[in-house]
Amino acid sequence: MSTITGMAQRMFAMEADDITIQCSDEVTVNVIVSVAGIGLVYENAANYQPVNGIVKLGELGELVNRCIEISNSFHSLASEQRRYASCTLTVGIPDEEIEETAEVLYCRKRVGLSATDILFMTGCRNRRVVPGQHVILYVPNQQGLTIQHKVAYLYNEQVYYVSDTEEPVTGQNTYICIDCSPELELSAVAPSGSTLIYYDVELYYDNELCDRVHCEIDTTYYARKAEWIFINLFGVQESVIMRGNEEDEVKHEASYGYAGTIYRKFDTQLTYERKTNSGWLAPGEWEMLCDLSESPATGIRTGNDITDLVITGAEVKRVNPSNEPEAVTFTWRYKDRVELAPDTKKLFVFERPPFDESFE
Fold it and tell me: What is the arithmetic mean of pLDDT over 175-179?
């Protein structure tokens, strides 16, 4: 009689690599992955020969992550919002009518947490936030949760610290979206004309504190800054500000050969490549940018629009011990080819000539 071990009712994807089957002889294992609202995504049956009485299904966690990414359009931030960051994994032994099913949450790393833990689905809990940045946090989709927004602000040269309570509304998605953008946090508790200093977002379950995210307002002037959006290790959107310089480089690509006796150039194409520096990083932000570098989808937000990009290289280096500040440089291109459009606008016509010849 075979037995399946290592499957919890709710688990992170990389924990699926720990699923084993204890058996004494060759066994046929059926693996099924399905996503809510879409249905069957993957199904495969294969024979396995046990080693020391154990069959281990290798790279099952990676398989689950790829199924979730493909079925929920993880590779495009500009498309419609993803509804789910989880799937249903079924491991069965048809010959013995044994079957185990689990809800598997998207996760690219082993995080040392249980999928049943109550927490914010983010890898950065101390962050710098600039005015106008979109800060979105996600919590598990279950009842009994309470969010407390604790805001420190300056008004009439006096500092105030107030809190506001929110009860998330459950829905059909894997997680509940909480908008914690700085302007929204300030307007909810402070009078007009106030200046935001910092705020904390705390997550409670049954009146017990489970997690906290601290956001410090960065009012430093930067000659250039850009808001990047990416899918973090938990499969939800994360926002980070690039504060450093950006280099634009146009590469000329073409094929060369003879057309008869004439040496010619064919298929000329200009490739627009950019390098963006993160600027000096605060503690905790280095890990967030490492997560960004392996994200399946990254984009730049301009207003309410997000333009997809593809990271082609990253200079991520840390030296310990060191007193020097850290920074990361990304090489990237837009996902859709961006052309340099010629200036075809009409010349501006003055009602009267800008130079009056009658002037004396």
Answer: 91
